[in-house]
Every structure is written in C-alpha cells, then in structure tokens.
Amino acid sequence: MFPAQRKLLVALGERLRLARLRRGLAIDVTCERAGISRMTLYRLEAGGSAIALGTLVRVLSVLGLGSDLEAIARDDRLGRLLQDQALPPRRSRRRTTPVTADPLG
After folding, report:
1. How far apart are CA 19 and CA 33, in angstroms?
2. Distance separating alpha carbons of residues 16 and 18, to the nearest angstrom
C-alpha cells in the first residue's frame, strides 16, 4: 500500500472512532450492533487495510452514517473528462434555407 493510501485509511479510522465517541457508543455496544469482534473494530479505527467493505458498511450504519457511502465516486470528474475526450468530434449541421424564385414570396 502506498503511504498516501495508508494515510487515508488512518484518517478514516480516526473519523469513525470520533463519530462513535460523539454518539457515546461503547466499543462493546458498537461491536454487538455491527456484528463484529472488538479486534475488528480496533483494526478499523486504526486504519487497517484488511477490513472487509461489508464490515465498514455495517459500522457506518450503526453510527448513522450509512448515507455517506452515496458520496463515494458520485461525481467522477476524471472519468467523465476521459469519456468526453473519447467521443468523436461533433459534426456541424448546415441549415439550408429554401430558395424561392420570387423574393417576395
């Protein structure tokens, strides 16, 4: 794992720990509600990289943060830019006006 990725996981774990503490949830209560062991929660809050995505989703749900997952990759700016660059160039359409023999109509 690259150092920048490790840093992101550690920061996420710390945010989850703070969210749990703000809600006054003890470790045991959080683990019971999420259906995980204490060690798994410790690893998650420490930024462990071997935590299953499903475990993260359950803990977010226990903390009332499940809707935060909706924000992940919602606005894929880079992907849209790459997609737009791959599109064929737009052809201009010429509009032709009917030619009348009599200009008055």
Report:
1. 15
2. 5
Report the sign of the C-alpha dihedral through residues 11, 6, 63, 24, in that order. Answer: negative
pTM of the model: 0.74
CB–CB of 13/45 below 8 Å?
A: yes
Residue boundaries of the structural domains of the chain? 3-63
* Tokens linked to 64: 């009332």
45 vs 24: CA distance, rounded Å: 15
State how far the Cα of 105 lies from the Cα of 103, in Å rounded to an integer. 5
Q: Which two tokens stand for residue 54?
A: 């499903």
CA-CA distance, 14 to 38, in Å (whole number)?
16
**Residue that the structure tokens 């003890």 belong to:** 26
CATH, domain range 3-63: 1.10.260.40
Q: What is the pLDDT along the chain (105 residues), one digit of tens a residue?
A: 899 999 999 999 999 999 999 999 999 999 999 999 999 999 999 999 999 999 999 999 999 999 998 888 888 888 888 888 887 777 776 666 665 665 565
